[in-house]
Design brief:
Layout: H1 4-18, H2 25-43, H3 59-79, H4 84-97
Length: about 110
Amino acid sequence: GPNCFRAVIERGEKFLREYPETPFRKEQIYHLALAYETWWSLSQAESGDPTAEGGQIDRASAERARKKAIDLYEELTRIAPESPEARAGKLILPRLKLGLGTGERTFFCFSC
C-alpha cells in the first residue's frame, strides 16, 4: 500500500532496539527521520495533491511524527555532524521546526 513509511518506522525502530551498537546506526536513523518526515509532510499536502493521494494521516499523529523527525535529525547532527545525512537534516530542520510542509515522499507510494 501507499503508506509504507509506517513499515519503515516499525522495522527501523525495532532494528535499533535489537542492535543498538550497529555500524549502520547513522543510516538507520536517517531513514527513520525521512519516514517520520514523510508522515508529517503528507499531513501538510494541499487538497488534490496527487503525490499525497491515499495518505491517511490524522493531524495528531502527524505532529508526533514531526517532533520525532526533528529529534532524529538532531541526533544525526550530534553523532555524525559532518556526514551527508546530518547535512541533509540540517537543511530540513528549520522547515520542520516551523511546522511547514517539506514535500518529502521517500517512503510513500502515490502510484500504488
